[in-house]
Amino acid sequence: MEGQQNDQSRERDVAIGCALLVTAAAVITAVAFPSALPPQASFNDRENRLLDSQAARDTGSTGSDSRLAPLLVQREQLGLSARGEPIDLVRIGDGPIPILILASIHGNESAGTALLIRLERELQRFPELVDERSVFLIPMANPDGVALNQRFNANGIDLNRNFPADNRQNSLRFGREALSEPEARAIHGAIEAFAPSHIVTLHEPLTCVDYDGPAESLASAMSDVCPLPVRKLGSRPGSLGSYAGLTLGIPIVTFELPRNARDLNDDQLWALYGSALIAAVRWQPTAIPVTALPVTP
Ligand SMILES: [Zn+2]
């Protein structure tokens, strides 16, 4: 009897162990190989990012469990700066509405980089914000300018005048021709590859929400939830705003943080401007309501 019980006990243990192994394998498979990756999912390190993303969500204090599919988070090198520094791109989500948000195209206006790093974290904590979205982030579009704490890239060119807009002007500061600079080519390539439904570019210090193209309601949606008023600054020659908004007709907001933004820490920046970025993520041309913005300081 005793021997029989031991045998039954061993059989039960083996059965439980097998069941656990099968369950673990199923979880790993579900995390590493989501069923609906988009065709352009050619990023490196996809599986690792998915696992990292899942781990971040599992340990997040308020993350939603409503999505069964893992949140897609991918990183790739979009291009290289004039000095050969990487220009990184982060993709969050695999939905049908692509959104491009970039910061630090002017190297001495880098508060936006901190905001986009925080935005990436928050979108992973609240993956429902990314539903139906693919959010493409370029947190530092001009890494050489940031390193040199200067507006221009390492060649002395204003990247935000280097785009092939209809109002483009060639000059020493704006570049000898459109897209003469590798950083501008990288951003241009992202627009061509991902066809964003709308774009947000973060600047300082003009303290307003400026826009080009059919973006008035996007600008209002962002302004409504942050201290910055909507203000039309006028289109600059060869700017990203002119190119995307006027030449291509893509709604684009130039989000101009105040001069003191770089003195604020990550929490202070997010408390003031995080809701505006989330409003931009949730906005679409046929406006949908922006509700329940989970901004936490
Ligand atoms: Zn600027």
Overall shape: it is: globular
Distance between the termini: 64 Å
Helix content range of the residues, please?
25-40%
CATH top level class name:
Alpha Beta
CATH superfamily grouping:
Zn peptidases
Bound molecules: zinc ion
Describe this protein with a few key phrases.
297 residues, alpha/beta, Aminopeptidase, 7-stranded mixed sheet, 8 helices, 38% helix, 16% strand, globular, disordered N terminus, binds zinc ion
If you had to describe this structure to a student in words, what would you say it looks like?
- This protein has a single domain (33-282), classed as Zn peptidases (Aminopeptidase).
- 38% of the residues lie in helices and 16% in strands.
- It has helices at residues 2-32, 46-59, 111-125, 143-148, 182-194, 216-223, 240-247, 266-282, and strands at 73-80, 86-92, 97-103, 133-138, 198-203, 206-212, 252-258.
- With 297 residues, it is an alpha/beta fold.
- Helix 3 (111-125) crosses helix 8 (266-282) and helix 6 (216-223) runs antiparallel to helix 8.
- It starts with a helix and ends in a 15-residue tail after the last helix.
- A hairpin with a 5-residue loop joins strand 1 (73-80) and strand 2.
- A seven-stranded mixed sheet has the order 1-2-4-3-5-7-6, with helices on both faces.
- The model is unreliable at 1-67 (pLDDT under 50).
- The radius of gyration is 23 Å and the shape is globular.
- The chain is built from eight helices and seven strands.
- Zinc ion binds next to loops.
Quick summary of this structure?
With 297 residues, this protein is of the alpha/beta class. Helix content is 38%, strand content 16%. The chain binds zinc ion.
